[in-house]
Write a structure and sequence with these properties.
364 residues, five-stranded mixed beta sheet, 7 strands, 12% strand, Nucleotidyltransferase, NT_sf
């Protein structure tokens, strides 16, 4: 039996995205940080460009559990040369700025500065352009990407391309990664956040524009079941694995959730059994995003993913809203809508508070 229940997932996604007030705080926070950096006479002359990265920019952000603090990352591309600045020296250049504007609110992290505001957290990520000769071209392309950073976070992926032209996208793709100072390792490392953005955009297209919503749903699953899950994998490493497991050509968010969980369980069964963490090379650079994950943690996460996959499959194959909705709520918690009381198991009754029309088709 086919059921026109995709609206349940639409409402669920609406309720797990950052709230309008969180979006406003994030936009104002990173805009203020950018303006202050650009106005700093001691630093501004060494900048190539600035752009947003992270789940905010990849459209995979969910609101923090219990509506707590949201976060946003700003990457600053500089003209620093590794031969002249150690990672510690590179980061220390920004401490006077942080003391002036964010005294008592910032902390130095391994590869960034964390800034704690009243309602949001910001990460200031310091990087260097790979070669001085490319700095001008690199900066122009980054500005083209940065100009798109105002796309609304509370909507699905915009139809606007990630980059403004195929020529720019192709040129950017071929450029060298940025270099980031790693305080813990005492060395500069490769990083390519723009390759992550480009990969996510293309993957979303291949998945019928459902991929970013599949990621949001499974990030929320992790938050709901945090007490039974290990601390890691989370954040980008988890998103990376979901990207590797989500099949192209999915027709709905629900299908994507089911097949991604099942692929995760199948792909990493041997790793989990041996308590070995799979390697996962970052987009655009030869860095293992899973390097800091513990084998026992990965095995524990895999076990919970196995349970989630079985539950998701059962919900996906349920014949009616009254049967399916409680199963999806068990998976995703109370943010997933309930089935209407007294509804017939032979037909679908739209739940209250839904948005827009309902098309026919399988659950979501």
């Amino acid at each position: 039996m086919t059921l026109p229940l995709h609206r349940y997932f639409e409402d669920f996604l609406h309720d797990i995205r950052p709230t309008p007030s969180q979006i406003k705080e994030m936009r104002e926070g990173h805009a203020r940080l950018r303006e202050r950096l650009q106005a700093d006479t001691a630093l501004a002359g060494g900048f190539v460009s600035m752009f947003l990265q992270g789940s905010y920019r990849r459209f995979t952000a969910v609101r923090p559990k219990d509506d707590s603090r949201a976060d946003v990352d700003l990457v600053v591309v500089t003209k620093m040369k590794e031969s002249e600045f150690s990672p510690a020296q590179a980061m220390s250049c920004f401490k006077p700025f942080l003391e002036r504007h964010y005294k008592g609110k910032y902390r130095q992290q391994g590869r960034s500065f964390g800034i704690e505001m009243s309602r949001i957290d910001m990460d200031l990520v310091i990087t260097a352009a790979p070669m001085e000769a490319e700095a001008g071209t690199y900066g122009e392309l980054l500005k083209a990407e940065a100009s798109l950073s105002s796309l609304r976070l509370d909507e699905d992926f915009s139809s606007e391309p990630l980059f403004k032209s195929d020529r720019q996208e192709e040129a950017l793709w071929k450029l060298h990664p940025l270099r980031i100072p790693d305080r813990d390792l005492g060395a500069w490392q490769d990083t390519h956040p723009l390759a992550q953005l480009s990969w996510t955009h293309r993957k979303n297209d291949r998945c019928g524009r459902h991929f970013v919503n599949v990621v949001k749903a499974l990030k929320w699953w992790r938050l709901v079941h945090l007490e039974s899950l290990p601390k890691r994998p989370k954040s980008y490493p988890l998103e990376h694995l979901l990207g590797d497991c989500c099949p192209d050509g999915i027709d709905s968010i629900a299908e994507g959730v089911v097949r991604t969980l099942e692929a995760f369980v199948d792909n990493y069964a041997l790793h989990a059994a041996a308590k070995i963490v799979p390697s996962a090379e970052d987009r655009g650079v030869k860095q293992d995003v899973m390097a800091r994950i513990d084998g026992n943690d990965f095995a524990a996460f895999h076990e919970q993913a196995k349970k989630a996959a079985k539950l998701a499959r059962k919900a996906f194959e349920s014949p009616d809203a009254q049967t399916a909705a409680p199963l999806w709520r068990e998976l995703f918690g109370g943010k997933f809508p309930s089935a209407p009381e007294g509804g017939s198991k032979k037909s679908f009754t739209p739940h209250e508070g839904g948005s827009g029309g309902v098309d026919s088709g399988r659950f979501a």
